[in-house]
Amino acid sequence: MLPFICRRNQGQSIDQTSAPQVIQEGDSLLLECTYKISGNPYLFWYVLYPGQAPTMLLNDLTRKSEKNHKGFTGTHESKKKSYNMNKNQVEVSDSAMYFCAVSDTVNKTHSSPVT
């Protein structure tokens, strides 16, 4: 079994899958994130592996509708105000806490882990 633990971010107007998910290796994963913010939000998915600091996994800084990194795909649907993340086949090494974040501003010096 592969646990996926998500938490609700209380600092922003954002909601995501909040109950822990336990899935089998090789199964698909979908984590949903919706936001309520005016303007053009910048959206992120972070991952927190056991014993490590959080790191950015995906972002929507380039405003493309879909991003892919390490097999995870982030899909931004601005009309639905959602930025969902999925992976077709999870691995045991994907066990971690995942959380989405939103910001209405991003510094230009910010770098993206996804090219």
Automatic annotation (TrEMBL):
Judging by the UniProt lineage, the source's domain of life is Eukaryota
- Tell me which positions the record assigns to the signal sequence: none
The Ig-like domain covers 3-115
Which controlled-vocabulary keywords does the entry list? Adaptive immunity, Immunity, Immunoglobulin domain, Receptor, Signal, T cell receptor
Q: Which SMART domains match?
A: IG, IGv
Against InterPro entries, the record matches this protein to: Ig-like_dom (IPR007110), Ig-like_dom_sf (IPR036179), Ig-like_fold (IPR013783), Ig_sub (IPR003599), Ig_V-set (IPR013106), TCR_variable_region (IPR051287)
Asked if Signal is a keyword of the record, the answer is yes
| Family annotation (PANTHER family) | T CELL RECEPTOR ALPHA VARIABLE 16 (PTHR19367:SF18), T-CELL RECEPTOR ALPHA CHAIN V REGION (PTHR19367)
- Name of the molecule in the record: Ig-like domain-containing protein
- In which organism is this protein found? Staurois parvus
